[in-house]
Amino acid sequence: MYLKSNDLFSKSRPESLYDSIPRPIVLADNLLTPDNMGSMIRLADNIGASEMIFLGTEPTHSLGRVRKCAASSKDNIKWFFTEETDLHKIIPANKKIVAIETATNATNIYETELPSDVAFIVGNESHGIREEILNQCDSIVYIPIPGPTRSLNVSHAASVALFEWYRQKYSSY
Question: What are the φ/ψ torsions at residue 81 (nearest 5 degrees)?
């Protein structure tokens, strides 16, 4: 029998995790697609992130599309654009910055213990995370892809990583 998600989650209280650890921050480096931006806002809201930060220029011509794709999440979470490239100026010093990227020094996300106090960053749809941003990250994880298309949509990759982080932290909570 179908059960409304709000009814199910009111009993299990998955947000109780944040009684013991800080909420994550989610960042995206130079996203181009309004649909992806809106999906990232929705995802950041779904995971209970404290904020969604877009590195790069604000797309003035398509903010309506971003808001539409974010749906009600656009009002539930702080989200903004910044051209700042020094992550240490926008991320609190206590947070570990974890890049979700295919890179030579990346580790398999399923074999990596993710930090409790974390900021996750994903990259541009075509070029990934800029090198100058990637070099500021504390660690880099990749998601193993078993199918013939070896890359994920940016919001899908962020979903996998954020919910793997949640799984790790909730199971040890």
Answer: -110, 145
Q: How far is the first Cα of the chain from the last one, in angstroms, to the nearest whole number?
A: 30
Q: Label residue 38 left, alpha or beta by phi (over 0 means left) and psi (-120 to 50 means alpha).
A: alpha
The tokens 């130079």 sit on which residue? 30
Helix-, strand-, coil-residue percentages of the chain, each rounded to 5: 45, 20, 40
Asked whether 62 and 34 are in contact (CB, 8 A), the reply is: yes
CATH topology of domain 22-172: Alpha/beta knot (3.40.1280)
The DSSP letter of residue 112 is S
Six-digit token string for 148: 């013939």
d(Cα 90, Cα 71) in Å, to the nearest integer? 26
> What are the residue ranges of helices labelled H in 120-153?
131-134
- pLDDT of the chain, 173 residues: tens digit per residue: 988 888 888 888 889 999 999 999 999 999 999 999 999 999 999 999 999 999 999 988 899 999 999 999 999 999 999 999 999 999 999 999 999 999 999 999 999 999 999 999 999 999 999 999 999 999 999 999 999 999 999 999 999 999 999 999 987 76
Query: What are the φ/ψ torsions at residue 168 (nearest 5 degrees)?
Result: -60, -45
